[in-house]
Glutamine--fructose-6-phosphate aminotransferase [isomerizing] (Paratractidigestivibacter faecalis), 366 residues
Amino acid sequence: TLGGYADFMAKEIAEQPEAIERLLSGRLGEKGILLDELKMTEEELAAVDRIYLIACGTSYHVGLIARTLIQTWAKVPVICDYASEFNYEQDVLVTDHTLCVIITQSGETADTLAAARKMHGMGAKVFAVTNVLGSTAARESDGVLYVQAGPEVCVASTKAYTAQMVACALFALRLAQSHGVMSAEEVATHYQDLKAIPDAIREVISRSWQDKQAAAVFRSATSALFLGRGVNATTAYEGALKLKEVSYLHAEAYPAGEMKHGPIALLEPGFPVVAIVPADRVHDKTVSNIQEVNARGAVCVAVATDGDESVASLCEHVLWIPPVADELLVPIVAVVHLQILARYVARTRGCDVDKPRNLAKSVTVE
Ligand code: M6R
């Protein structure tokens, strides 16, 4: 039931902090990160030399973030692919110690299940990150990590996205541990950083009025451009997908540095651009992109870190996020503004946010 919320999208956005707390609870033991669900021995985990992350849609965006976390923390090479592409590729390279991780909220996405079967056929172990107990993905995999986000009813995925990112972060830490590339102290520090995420999300949700105000920029727009760098290029992809799904407004997303290689031609006075520009290594580069946006009279809505005057002075609206200790975890917090923004834009345009046209909650045909 809606329990007082106007729609499931609003309810599920609000449920994110608790979902993540549930997932993180009791995951740090004496020997480090506890992920017994993996059903892999220490030796098997330590031997993993390549990982394929396979998923569709929003879950694919989780895969992009997971790739960065695994490569940065565990130093294991990762290939991330859309299941619908992967299934027809002939260049899949499976070693004796390749692990396939499928990421699927519903556990029923046909392309993703087909990818898992293909990998099993090639001799790889398959591990599923899913939200649905007893789903086909769970039943057919060698190990399952349930993200425990609770039923997600709204077709547009919100709480499963953030919970799946956290699940993959735990997996990356577990792998780093077994590969001997991270000290127990470092693991504990990353775990504490993850534990701080729910409160940061609560803070973002308490600032929904910022998204409501910014939604006015999109009321009569016909298109929007999302920009971000590094891990937040993925936040841009997910923000654009959310906006398209629920508001039917055309949106595309690019790594910010790619704007000058083509998309900049779209800019004209009033054109809405959403820039994800938190306080991180690439901040100043993205600020330069915002200046280019402004020079063409386009309207910039930014997601930025509290107190960032350099962004505030350039943008029509700023969706503020509190500081996040580890910049690789910012996507889990920043995306919440984009979920809320998409919902407000959809509502101002009269769309049914829970049941967008042409879409089903799980896509069970290949
Ligand atoms: O259940 P899955 O995670 O396998 O679903 C994959 C996509 O169909 C799904 O994420 C879709 O993109 C959502 N509607 C996005 O909000």
Residues 159-178 form the longest helix (20 residues). The pocket of 5-amino-5-deoxy-1-O-phosphono-D-mannitol is lined by residues 56-59, 104-106, 109, 112, 155-157, 245, 359, 362-363 (CB under 6 Å).
